[in-house]
Design goal:
Elements: E1 15-16, E2 21-22, E3 25-26, E4 32-35, H1 43-52, E5 54-59, H2 63-68, E6 80-82, H3 95-98, H4 106-119, H5 124-139, E7 143-147, H6 154-165, H7 170-178, H8 186-201, H9 207-214, H10 218-232, H11 235-243, H12 247-257
Parallel strand pairs: 4-7, 5-6, 5-7
Antiparallel strand pairs: 1-4, 2-3
Helix pairs in contact: 4-9, 4-10, 5-12, 6-7, 8-9, 10-11
């Protein structure tokens, strides 16, 4: 799994989420990239990104997040950047930041994150962003980059939805999601967010609570899919009814991504 991770100086959690088996072939590598935001990308990072020839960027952040940390691009970047205007997290915060309200312990942090995941598949602006994501995968050539702020919650859900819709085995779906916890330098990634989280919510938050907010757990993703199953009976029905991803669109995506 670590072979799919690319290490950057100012970009966290950057990795290829292709390469998994599906019932009709294997997801191609080098086409599906995911990460955190690129606001702190270095010149070396941007040079490495240029080599990936990314033609489509799907930004799942909200307007306020984009304003605070505009993503940097290399000089030759001529790709399309897609996002839905508005706040994808509901209250101008990334999910892990939103979950931090009133939190002091790791158990409280995990509970808050679990509750957020139950609602995340139905947040209106995020739904619009996910619709743009799947439309791009079905219609645009070349490599794509999917990202939010930390590249773990909104991005993790989106990548897992794609994997599930293309028939990637459940174990691989979960392994890709959990790779956030070991990809790159997780300690540096967590430390980079700790100060801002404590500044927002107070110094009483424990180190363990910070780690819980900045990590992912299997129960988080299971909660999101349980909410989908309860309301729609499965991922395919959810995708068709909420995201406009019907059988024809799934086939179009598979034709571009599965070899």
């Amino acid at each position: 799994m670590s072979d799919r991770v690319l290490n950057f100086e100012g970009i966290h959690n950057f990795r290829d989420y292709g390469g998994y088996d599906t019932p009709v072939g294997r997801l191609r590598t080098g086409l599906l990239w995911r990460s955190g935001q690129h606001g702190a990308a270095t010149a070396a990072d941007l040079a490495s990104l240029a080599d990936l020839r990314i033609s489509t960027v799907i930004d799942l952040r909200g307007d306020s997040e984009r304003a605070l940390a505009p993503c940097l691009r290399h000089d030759g970047f001529d790709g399309l950047v897609l996002f839905a205007p508005g706040e994808t997290a509901g209250i101008e915060l990334a999910p892990h930041e939103e979950a931090g309200r009133g939190i002091t312990t790791a158990a409280e942090a995990r509970g808050a994150m679990t509750r957020l995941y139950a609602a995340m598949p139905y947040r209106p602006i995020l739904v619009r962003s996910l619709t743009l994501y799947f439309e791009a995968l079905a219609t645009r050539d070349g490599a794509s980059l999917l990202h939010c702020l930390a590249g773990k919650d909104r991005t993790g859900l989106a990548a897992a939805l794609l994997h599930r819709l293309l028939g990637v085995h459940a174990d691989d779906v979960m392994a890709d999601y959990l790779l956030t916890n070991t990809a790159g330098d997780p300690a540096r990634r967590i430390a980079s967010a700790a100060a801002s989280i404590r500044e927002r919510y107070g110094p009483q938050m424990s180190d363990e609570a910070i780690v819980a907010l900045m990590s992912v757990e299997a129960d988080y993703l299971r909660t999101a899919f349980a909410a989908i199953d309860e309301r729609h009976g499965g991922v395919e029905a959810y995708a068709a009814e909420v995201l406009g991803v019907d059988a024809a669109r799934r086939q179009a995506i598979a034709a571009r991504l599965v070899a």
